[in-house]
Amino acid sequence: MTVEKVVEIENVSMNYHTLDGETLAIKDLSFNVYKGEIVIIVGPSGCGKSTALSIISGLIKPSSGKVVVNGKAVVEPSKSIGYMFQKDHLFEWRTILNNVLIGVEIQNKLTNEMKEKAERLLELYGLGEFKHYYPSQLSGGMRQRVALIRTLAIEPDLLLLDEPFTALDYQTKLAVADEIGRILKKEGKTAIMVTHDISEAISMGDRVIVLSKRPSTIKSIHEIKLTLDVERTPLASREAPEFRHYFNTIWKELDVHVK
Amino acid sequence: MLNNQKCVNDLKAKYPDVSEEHREFLCKVKKRKRAIIITQVSLLVVFFVLWELAARTKLIDTFLTSYPSQMWNLFLRLMEDGSLYRHVGISTFETVVGFVAGTLLGTLVAIFLWWSDFISEVLDPYLVVLNALPKTALAPVIILWAGAGITGIIVTAMAVSIVVTILGVYGGFKEVDSDKIKMLQTFGATRLQILQKVIIPASIPTIVSAVKINVGLSWVGVIVGELMVSRAGIGYLIVYGSQVFRLDLVMTSVFILAILATIMYQGVAYLEKKLMKWR
């Protein structure tokens, strides 16, 4: 494994200020992500997982600490970071192809070459015939795939995925997670994904980081090593004998109590 | 139901692949639609016929109500001498300029408010007061300032619609999903790009519905303005007619006004359909 660091997160803390007072959301978060790796962050709801992603993307500034991506400190949204949301946020008034091109357009990189590339990506991931459709004509799973291609179109070095499958129904979620997991591996992308779904985390991640309740700190990091006869894909991963052990360990660490 | 059977048979040629049951369903929908239109037209016809009959049998005082055939004759006369076109033309021109200006300026102010949260918060109470105030109360002042003529009338029409536009369109801007904006920000979008790529296109439905309301409001402004100062236009015809007790002129003008306003509204509705084909 190459040990080229893509992301270095050093002692990041985040304070939220409201009129009622201040809340420490994240405390002293530090970890690295290496090239081609998919790192999953899980944690109890409301622990500041999404905040962590927003900080890494440069959308919000941490109260202290710093984030370095590809050797450069992140201070504002960077062109080398792609971000994928819970909802697809496709623009209803744009066709699929034009939706995919929005990022490129924003970055003033819209060339014929880019357009061809976007069309190729759509073609490659089974959406070629829909490029002139409007989002309302596509199913939820397809829309989320379009959202990923929109993110890939700007050729990011790092992808941030914020619970990207939460808005989908269970069956679609499994299928789309499998698909997107394969796409990320195929494109050799480095990714950080946030989720609250333990199985999803184990099935997609190379490493799983478990965060504690607020203020969030790292509770543990699990290197996911699965024995499989076939190539590892998110769906195949669920068949591995170790899957259950990881699940139980992480479940206990999350320490969920329903009162 | 002989009629129904015929309808079902006719549809057989058009939709050979669907079941008999589905054809019956289609016929039922079609019949209902037709029944609604027939009733609508009948209502109008019955209204005019009763009006005419009541007038001829002296049941109503035609000096106060006029009656359809008298109005029709007047309408034909107005068309013949060409004065109808002049009055309609002037009023329509004033209204169109009024609502286009009201919509454009209103949207511009809304953009301005969206751009600066501080300014929008500062101006909020003033807009609320202006919105609550019946703008027609300002008409005399506006006409004094802008001139007792077409300009004054247009400014009145604009004043009536602009505040509603500002509030409506700005409200639409604020309703745009903040995550959609965040999505563009992750690509490094500037504020201007956010405005261009998401705020305005996402608000087109709001802007169009503002235009729809403005068509009606603009007519209010134009008629009020014309009642006060003009020497031409539908509002002038109405006020002149009432002053000389020519109720046929008043009634005819009101009907022409209704038709004009409807045509304009439908025009905007058509535009809406064209603009929003992605729906």
TrEMBL record, chain A:
Which keywords appear in this protein's UniProt record, sorted alphabetically? ATP-binding, Nucleotide-binding, Transport
What GO annotations for molecular function exist for this entry?
A: ATP binding; ATP hydrolysis activity
Q: Which domain of life is it from?
A: Bacteria
Domain ABC transporter per the UniProt entry, residue ranges: 7-238
The protein's matches in Pfam families, at most eight in alphabetical order, are given as: ABC_tran (PF00005)
Coiled-coil stretches, from where to where?
Answer: none
Ranges that cross the membrane: none
Query: Which InterPro entries does the annotation name?
Result: AAA+_ATPase (IPR003593), ABC_transporter-like_ATP-bd (IPR003439), ABC_transporter-like_CS (IPR017871), ABC_transporter_ATP-bind (IPR050166), P-loop_NTPase (IPR027417)
Identify the Gene3D superfamilies for this entry.
Answer: P-loop containing nucleotide triphosphate hydrolases
PANTHER family assigned: ABC TRANSPORTER ATP-BINDING PROTEIN, TAURINE IMPORT ATP-BINDING PROTEIN-RELATED
Q: What is this protein called?
A: NitT/TauT family transport system ATP-binding protein
UniProtKB/TrEMBL annotation, chain B:
Domain of life, source organism: Bacteria
TM spans, by residue?
Answer: 35-54, 96-115, 127-147, 153-173, 217-238, 250-271
Enumerate the InterPro entries for this protein. MetI-like (IPR000515), MetI-like_sf (IPR035906)
Q: Where in the cell is it found?
A: Cell membrane
Question: Per UniProt, which keywords does this protein have?
Answer: Cell membrane, Membrane, Transmembrane, Transmembrane helix, Transport
Entry keyword annotation includes Membrane: yes
Q: Where is the ABC transmembrane type-1 domain?
A: 84-268
Q: Name one GO cellular component term.
A: plasma membrane
**What membrane topology is given?**
Multi-pass membrane protein
Entry keyword annotation includes Membrane: yes
A GO biological process this protein is involved in? Answer: transmembrane transport
**What is the protein name given in its UniProt record?**
NitT/TauT family transport system permease protein
**To which species is this protein native?**
Geosporobacter subterraneus DSM 17957
